[in-house]
């Protein structure tokens, strides 16, 4: 990974977008041109609030509906599906 931001004192946690904003700054990427892959409604809400495209892969303890409810852009069953989504988005 080029950038990882976790629980850091002084940085608000998701669904606040502060962590994502930090990552996009480190990567020098406009959030509106980024993609967030997450497994929770908080991930989706944080990304959507700054205009980032969202891909949801529900964790074993979450139902896909929880991600649909917050407006995830793409919903996958497994990480194995990511290459085909990237191909669809970028090719």
Topology:
Elements (H helix, E strand, L loop, with lengths): L17 H10 L7 E4 L2 H9 L3 E4 L7 H6 L4 E2 L6 H9 L1
Parallel strand pairs: 1-2, 2-3
List how many beta strands DSSP finds. Answer: 3
Number of H- or I-type helical stretches: 4
Shape: globular
Residues in β-strands, percent: 5-15%
What is the typical, i.e. mean, pLDDT? 92
Q: Enumerate the spans where pLDDT stays under 50 for 5 or more consecutive residues.
A: none
The chain-level structural class is: alpha/beta
Assembly annotation: single chain
Largest beta sheet: what is the strand line-up? 1-2-3
Helix content: 25-40%
Number of domains: 1
In the CATH hierarchy, what is the architecture at level 2?
3-Layer(aba) Sandwich
Structural Rg: 13 Å
Please outline the major beta sheet: 3 strands, parallel
Q: Name the CATH class.
A: Alpha Beta
> Could you give me the name of the CATH homologous superfamily?
HAD superfamily/HAD-like
The arrangement of helices and strands along the chain is: HEHEHEH
Q: What is the fold named in CATH at topology level?
A: Rossmann fold
* Distance between the ends: 23 Å
